[in-house]
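Students often ask what a 'structure token' actually looks like in practice. Rather than answer in the abstract, let us consider Thymidine kinase, a protein of 204 residues. Its sequence is given first.
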Amino acid sequence: MAKLYFHYSTMNAGKSTILLQASHNYRERGMQTYLLTAGVDTRAGIGKIGSRIGISAEADVFSEQDDLYEKIRQRRQEGPCACVFVDEAQFLSETQVWQLARAVDDIKIPVMCYGLRVDFMGHLFPGSATLLALADEMREIRTICHCGRKATMVARMGPDGRALVEGEQVQIGGNETYVSLCRKHWREAVGDVEPTAPEAEAPA
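Now compare that with the structural description of the same chain:
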């Protein structure tokens, strides 16, 4: 049965690598896939999904105005397609996530979305929030903080090497811009820490 999947993580957890490997597994068995990525992210080139370990694949791009149900329907009309893969799923709109859900239910094709859960301020991306609400299955792709604990947050670093606490939600960047941290060290980075209580004086 076709399902809507959401694979989420922080930055630099290997989401694109896992997506490309999963697509390769389908193709290795003679099944075609349809790859989609956000047009706003051009780090690997326009219409390309690339990973930090050097593998990449051509993909169709989507913008906020695109009807993804129609894109998938048209792709199905062009020939067999066993699965749809969506990279940078945090950039989907709420409407587009519903369009993907319709494609799963009505066209009966599995859709696997890969993206960030929260932004650098700890807020859910609209696309990720809707995927968390609608996905049939959700899987966390884990990476670690510098302390060794699981990283669940991402900090956006300024030119001075300090974490930024305000700005536009979308700013494309890689290791030079973003750092994945556990919640404790993210709070420290953005200055959200309780002041140390003064030590009580010893009785005379």
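One point worth highlighting: The chain has a mean pLDDT of 87. Ask yourself how you might have guessed this from the sequence alone, and why that guess would often be unreliable.
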